[in-house]
Amino acid sequence: MAVPLLCAAGGVHAAADMVLSQHIVAPDPVPAGGTATVTVVLRNNGPDAAQGVKLTDVIPPGSTFVSMSATDGGVCSSSAPYECTWAADVPNAGERTVTLRLVLPSAAVWANDASISTTSTDSNSANNSLTRNITAVAAADLQVVATHNAGGGAVAGTPYAYTVNVSNNGPDGLPAGQSPKVTFSVPSGSTITSIPTGAG
Question: Rounded mean pLDDT of 170-182?
């Protein structure tokens, strides 16, 4: 059986086929202002080992980089350009995984671009890049803070008051027609002396 080889002046050169086999986002969709985890899997379809493998990720404009890590000894940058490199070769049928975490600020569809390269001869460069659209949906972040005026501790039989504040840390407001509902449980054995009031 004849085996195809890639030849050049000076001899036979090793050939690999690096491919981006997976580009997964979780959660999907992601709440706006929340953290999206992007998992990218690189695979070498061979037949030879791939040397000098590098993954480059272009995060969506306006998003915020959180972290980037790689398996099998990969070293990743923490500022643009966001890249992971491997000193060791990626063998035939070998895989490497990169995990990227970023924050998308508002509800929209955001494009994340990933690409790989190798210093070895790559027999098929058409499978070296992937674009993954990340959907961010409108999201609110409600926060409840309760305080009381009993100082260091309530004296038995002495009235005291709770103040409950509700805020929305965003990035979006609540849908039209909706408002927050607060359920507050008082300590067991206590008596409510007045109807709760509030504004907002």
Answer: 67
Residue 30 has pLDDT above 80, yes or no: yes
Closest CA to 23 of 119, 150, 139, 114: 114
- Residue whose C-alpha is closest to residue 140's, from 167, 166, 165, 171: 171
Residues pairing with 166 in the sheet: 144
CA nearest 30: which of 143, 138, 175, 168? Answer: 138
Taking the domains of the chain in order of start, what are their residue ranges? 15-137, 140-200
Q: Diameter of the chain by CA atoms? A: 97
The CATH architecture of the domain made up of 15-137 is Sandwich (2.60)
User: Alpha carbon of 54 to those of 73, 93, 133, 159: distances in Å?
Assistant: 12, 17, 22, 67
Residue 53, both tokens: 């493998």
The single-letter code of the amino acid at 15 is: A
